[in-house]
Design brief:
Blueprint (H helix, E strand, L loop, with lengths): L1 H6 L57 H27 L23 H8 L3 H20 L33 H32 L3 H4 L17
Helix pairs in contact: 2-5
């Protein structure tokens, strides 16, 4: 299930260092933010001690404002996906093993990396439905944040009034109205997303190594999984 929830959020990379080139004098109306070329990453949220201005590979060293905003948009969206994926991976495995789609009480379908094997075998049409849902969500995000073809200066330009990641989805009303509070919350989200991206990559790698669930690897859960019980073998 965690893979399904993960896919529903979709969207890549990380953004760090600033540049003094091609700075636009626009402001982002979402929180009355204006880029500052004298600050790290044009003053965008995400710069935090104890490792401020962290850009070891220099991905954005020569980036203009437009590119920096796209980097931050991608990082924010990937972080959100990774946070959902990390939670879902742990919740759907032993010992919690909560599965909205599966009867976990009578069959352990094993590590999270194998769950879509079961879906493929029992409900193959689900992938077509999933593709339509993902496409719909991505279309909404594109309409909210990106300039239409013909109106943009370069491919995937963000709208002038769009703040990276602010797609208008806030069902619990958590988004602060105060700019400082918004920046603090945005920084927290970015930091948690960065940790989650590393975490989910590590968990998937571990399960690929020995095919065992995370808590089983830690010795905190019993291994009930029979690899021969799933339809796809590897």
């Amino acid at each position: 299930m965690k893979l399904i929830v993960t896919a529903l959020c979709a969207a890549g990379a990380s953004a760090f260092a600033p540049s003094s080139r091609n700075v636009k004098s626009t402001s982002l109306n979402a929180i009355n933010w204006a880029p500052d070329e004298s600050k790290f990453a044009y003053g965008l949220p995400g710069n935090l001690d104890p490792v401020p201005e962290f850009d070891p590979l220099g991905f954005a060293a020569e980036a203009d404002l437009s590119t920096m905003l796209k980097y931050r948009e991608a990082e924010t969206m990937h972080g959100r996906v990774a946070m959902l994926a990390a939670i879902g991976m742990l919740v759907t495995e032993e010992p919690i093993e909560y599965h909205p789609l599966f009867e976990a009480y009578n069959k352990d379908i094993g590590p999270a990396i194998r769950h879509l094997d079961e879906v493929r075998a029992t409900s193959p049409f689900f992938f077509e439905v999933l593709g339509l849902i993902i496409g719909s969500l991505e279309l909404q995000r594109a309409l909210a944040g990106f300039k239409a073809p013909g109106e943009n200066d370069k491919f995937q330009d963000l709208k002038d009034g769009y703040f990276p990641g602010d797609v208008g989805f806030d069902p619990l009303g958590l988004k602060p109205d105060d700019a400082d509070e918004f920046f603090e919350m945005s920084t927290k989200e970015l930091q948690h997303g960065r940790v989650a991206m590393l975490g989910i990559a590590g968990m998937v790698a571990q399960e690929l190594v020995n095919g065992k669930e995370i808590f089983v690897n830690l010795g905190l859960a019993t291994d009930r999984f029979d690899p021969s019980s799933v339809p796809v073998q590897f």
